[in-house]
Design brief:
The protein is mainly α and about 70 residues long. It has helices spanning about 5-15, 20-25, 30-45, 60-69, and strands at about 50, 55-60. The two termini are about 15 Å apart.
């Protein structure tokens, strides 16, 4: 099970669609967002975002987490 901070991170990425603006909104570095997202995806066992030229769009599983947040 992921924690509230994990939900916040996923929601932040989904809202902004990119890592750097999400990191700015969350008050952390982009490397922290990358690392935490990798940890969350490992924990849930699937990718939460489609990555396309730096743009992050939630996968079906990611959309469920965004909706729950």
């Amino acid at each position: 099970m992921i924690g509230w901070d994990d939900y916040k991170l996923v929601l932040g990425i989904a809202r902004r669609g990119r890592i750097v603006p999400a990191a700015d909104d969350l008050g952390v570095t982009q490397s922290t967002v990358f690392r935490r997202l990798a940890d969350i995806e490992a924990q849930v066992g699937c990718p939460l975002f489609h990555r396309d030229n730096g743009t992050y769009t939630p996968t079906e599983d990611g959309a469920h987490i965004v909706a729950a947040a």
